[in-house]
Write a structure and sequence with these properties.
By secondary structure, the chain is α/β, with parallel strands linked by helices. It has one domain (about 5-250): Glycerol-3-phosphate (1)-acyltransferase (3-Layer(aba) Sandwich), CATH 3.40.1130. Helices cover about 35% and strands about 15% of the residues. It is built from 6 helices and 10 strands, in the order ααββββαβαβαββββα. Strands 1-10-7-2-6-3 form a 6-stranded mixed sheet, with helices on both faces. The chain has a two-stranded parallel ribbon with strand order 4-5. It has a two-stranded antiparallel sheet with strand order 8-9. α3 (about 110-115) links the parallel β4 and β5. The longest helix is centred in the first third of the chain and has 29 residues, at about 5-30.
């Protein structure tokens, strides 16, 4: 297909995705009033967003290792490639999962209300002590709820199939709450959606759920080894997709 036609096709498909996401967001914004703080709200939102991606971009998500998805409370981690990631997570996003966000998000018209109503953890960056700590708030939630906390441990997008170093936050939460970590590996997006070259190929996108990792008996002194263990798991899995050595999966320190 000529490059210009491929670009036009890409733009049309992405426009359809944007329209779908807007319509879905409006519906769930309205639902957030009668169903505030319901655990299923974010789950249903993620499922609905993924449906639009499947239809418009013809990307089907195949989940491998569902038997490893244990009951909560637990911390779920996944590698982070782009802003498009949340649109593909519907098939693996647990029904009672939450994410951590700044309280300033509430000031964003429309979306702030939806984020708040989905029962996510709101962090006040200006507060001091326990009330302002995302770690402590997350630990408290896990100790008093059977849900999941979803975290991208890299802390930022890797902008590709490889990955960046894992930050301490997700692992501190799991260790201090003494709950397991559930690693999920998202296959590099380029095979189905090459955003830099504006090519939407479609096809099968895999998300693999790995065996959970217990943190029982661990403390903060165990964090470096725990993080290295998890990074190595991701390096092994991503290297299979990229047909390279695990040592070539860049982990910046």
């Amino acid at each position: 297909m000529p490059r210009i036609l491929r670009r036009i096709q890409y733009n049309i498909k992405m426009a359809l995705v944007a329209i779908w996401c807007t319509l879905v967001s409006i519906v769930f914004y309205l639902l957030s009033f009668p169903f505030k703080h319901r655990k299923w709200l974010a789950w249903a939102y993620a499922k609905s967003l993924n449906f639009g991606v499947h239809v418009a971009l013809r990307i089907k998500v195949k989940v491998i290792g569902r038997e490893h998805m244990i009951a909560g409370p637990a911390v779920v981690i996944m590698n982070h490639q782009s802003n498009f990631d949340p649109l593909l997570q519907g098939p693996v996003f647990p029904k009672n999962a939450v994410i951590i966000g700044k309280k300033e998000l509430l000031k964003i018209p429309f979306w702030g209300r939806l984020f708040y109503a989905s029962n996510n953890i709101m962090v006040d960056r200006q507060a001091k002590g326990k009330n302002g700590s995302s770690i402590e708030l997350a630990v408290e939630r896990l100790q008093n709820d059977d849900g999941y906390i979803w975290i991208f441990p890299e802390g930022t997008r890797s902008q590709g199939g490889k990955m960046k170093a894992f930050k301490y936050g997700a692992f501190q939460i799991a260790v201090r709450a003494q709950v397991p970590i559930i690693p999920m590996v998202s296959k590099p997006l380029k095979a189905v959606l090459d955003i830099p070259s504006k090519t939407a190929k479609g096809g099968l996108h895999e998300i693999k759920i790995l065996e959970s990792i217990s943190t029982i008996g661990m403390n903060d002194d165990d964090l470096p080894d725990l993080i290295e263990r998890c990074e190595n798991l991701y390096k092994q899995e991503l290297s299979k997709y990229l047909s390279c050595s695990p040592d070539e999966i860049f982990v910046a320190r």
